[in-house]
Amino acid sequence: MTDTGIDVVMGFLEAVRQLGLARQDRDEHRPLWDYPRLPPGTCELASRLLTAYFPELAAVEGRLTWTTADGSSFVMDHFWCVRADGVIVDPTWQPPPGAGGVTYRQQ
Fold it and tell me: How many beta carbons lie within 10 A of that of residue 101, not counting itself?
């Protein structure tokens, strides 16, 4: 594992400790703020950590598309998590200021 990977794992474990969490039971209605946020650029590792810790989540690989206020579109390869009820839990990506619509598309 790279130094960045270790840093992400340690950050995840620290976030879990601060939230007072232990491995969680399945909860399809867990509030979104109960899922830890991790650093941008670590989407695959972050998604896999969350799915190992929160059994209601499944990791997804695909493309994320967002638009800006002026109508420009941006696309990037990305990993995120999803619950069985279709709720997306993205542990790393925050829309930039002025971002419009966001689309997650599984590959």
Answer: 9
